[in-house]
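Slack export, channel: ligand-projects

TW: morning all. Re-posting the request from yesterday since it got buried. We need the structure predicted with the small molecule present, not the apo form. The ligand is flavin mononucleotide; the SMILES is in the block with the sequence. No rush, but it would help planning for next week.
GE: picking it up
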Amino acid sequence: MNVIEALYARHSTRAFLADPVEKDKLLAVSEAAVRAPSWANSQPWEVFVATGATLDNIKRAYLEKYEAKEAPAPETPLPTEWPQASKDRRKLLDDGIKQTCGEAAKQFGPLNRGMFNAPAVAFVCMDKRLSPWSLYDLGAYAQCLMLAALEKGLGAIPAITLVLYPDVLRRELRIPDALKVVIGIAIGYIDKRHDINKFVSGRIPFAETTHFLD
Ligand SMILES: Cc1cc2nc3c(=O)[nH]c(=O)nc-3n(C[C@H](O)[C@H](O)[C@H](O)COP(=O)(O)O)c2cc1C
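GE: finished. pasting the full token output, ligand included:
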């Protein structure tokens, strides 16, 4: 698969098989991901990969918080208002899942709350003193990680729902207070029989967002 093919092939996986991911694959994917570009080669990503009993503990603690209806505490704030263009594009996801996945669309929330049944989650953090430029670097890192996962036959999804309770992550993963927990990326083998994974999100035509000026 060449790079362009990989870009078209990657899409978010929202239901994973319970099978664990081999350690050597997780290591290979993580090693490739740090090839991402970064401002002044600052390589700001600090990544905590949870698997096994550690991830089980995190999932359990999250479910307890959901049951207690505890308010999420995202360290990266949500927008106070989505611009209309973003709302319109978001409909491609919301409507598309309903149209493509049938009954499985109702699993969107529960799958998010159960961390998509993923056997591995990479929690991507950075030093709180860094600027938004470094968030750009973390985004580049995330895409590298997900494309490397694809190459190894794995699915992935970046999700804010994975980082709604950073206090749990700090406790279970011993993440220092000096780091901001930015995003989680669930990784694992794709449950191809789950209808939620039939959905592949669309894009508005690139010419509407990419402007060429001679
Ligand atoms: C920063 C970020 C946060 C996201 N958070 C969630 C999430 O909490 N739950 C979810 O189901 N998908 C989440 N996604 C996945 C997006 O919905 C998905 O990337 C988008 O719809 C495009 O689809 P694709 O990844 O399949 O191309 C997130 C993606 C990004 C980049």
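GE: first-pass observations. Residues 11-12, 14, 93, 112, 157-161, 183, 201 surround flavin mononucleotide (CB under 6 Å). The beta strands are 46-51, 120-127, 155-159, 179-188.
TW: perfect, thank you
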